[in-house]
């Protein structure tokens, strides 16, 4: 139910966009009545003004959480350039409201999946188009998750008394 409410609200806000201005701010293309949005290794078409999203090359409608993400991105993008400085999720405005959920769905889930297997982490990062990074940690990738949002994923393998962890960092401009 909350996801349906979020989707309804996002669609309402989306319909008020000026398409070419929104495309410019979000770093997306707008042609033939559709925004073309890259999300990691996938491309989505978002029709204007109805907000119907489909994965490029298919008629498949993405999961509602992906639709909400795409719509929010198009509505909220301000056109700011990447800051070229990493920030943690908790540094962003309003993050404390969702930090626990973010940790469960992001870093903790990734640590559970890859915390003991650097090779699988490397394969997964490469499959998603990640660019290897020289960072502290046992392995790290940089991703351009959306056209103007960079994310870093850093794996720290577990040791005897220390559990594995994954840090997710975002370009400091992400809230914009």
Average pLDDT confidence is: 94
- The share of residues in extended strands comes to 25-35%
Task: Count up the helices.
Answer: 5
> For the CA atoms, what is the radius of gyration?
17 Å
Low-confidence stretches: none
How would you characterize the largest beta sheet?
A: 5 strands, antiparallel
Major sheet: arrangement of strands: 5-9-8-7-6
Q: How far is it from the N-terminal to the C-terminal residue, by CA?
A: 27 Å
Helix fraction by DSSP (H/I, runs of at least 4): 25-40%
Shape: elongated
Q: What string, H for helix and E for strand, traces the elements in order?
A: HHEEEEHEHHEEEE
Structural class assignment: alpha+beta
Number of strands: 9
């Amino acid at each position: 139910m909350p996801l349906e409410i979020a989707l309804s609200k996002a669609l309402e806000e989306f319909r008020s966009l000026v398409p070419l201005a929104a495309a410019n701010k979000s770093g997306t293309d707008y042609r033939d009545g559709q925004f073309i949005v890259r999300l990691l290794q996938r491309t989505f078409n978002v029709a204007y003004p109805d907000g119907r999203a489909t994965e490029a090359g298919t008629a498949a409608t993405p999961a509602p959480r992906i639709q909400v993400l795409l719509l929010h991105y198009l509505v909220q993008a301000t056109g700011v350039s990447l800051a070229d400085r990493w920030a943690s999720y908790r540094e962003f405005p309003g993050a404390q409201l969702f930090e626990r959920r973010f940790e469960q769905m992001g870093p903790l889930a990734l640590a559970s999946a890859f915390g003991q297997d650097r090779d699988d982490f490397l394969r997964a990062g490469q499959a998603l188009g990640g660019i290897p990074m020289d960072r502290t940690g046992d392995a790290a990738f940089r991703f351009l998750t959306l056209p103007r949002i960079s994310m870093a994923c850093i794996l720290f393998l577990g040791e005897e008394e220390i559990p594995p962890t994954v840090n997710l960092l975002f370009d400091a401009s992400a809230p914009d």
